[in-house]
Amino acid sequence: MSLLVVGLSHRSAPVSVLERAALSADAQVKLLQDTVAAEPATEAAVLATCNRIELYADVDKFHAGVAELSTLLAQHSGVGLEELTPYLYVHYEDRAVHHLFSVACGLDSMVVGEGQILGQIKDSLAKAQELHTAGKLTNDLFQQGLRVGKRAHSETGIDRAGQSLVTFGLEQLAVGGAVEDWARGKKALVIGAGSMSSLAAATLVRAGVAEVVVANRTFDRAERLAQILSEADDNAVTARAVRMDAVPDELTRADVVVSCTGATGLVLTAEAVAQAVEGRTGQPAVAAPASTEANAKTAVPPTGVGADENCPLDLAAVQSGFSLMGEAAVAGMDAATLEQHAAWVAGGAVDRRERRTPEADAELITALAATAATVGRIPERRRPEPVAERPAPFFFLLDLAMPRDIDAAVHRLAGVRLVDIESLAEASADAPMAADVDQVRRIVSDEVAAFGAAQRAAHITPTVVALRTMAADVVASEIARLDGRLPDLDERQRGEIRQAVHRVVDKLLHAPTVRVKQLAAEPGGAGYADALRTLFDLDPETVASVSRAGDSTDKKDRPA
Question: Is the pTM value of this prediction over 0.70?
Answer without folding.
Answer: no
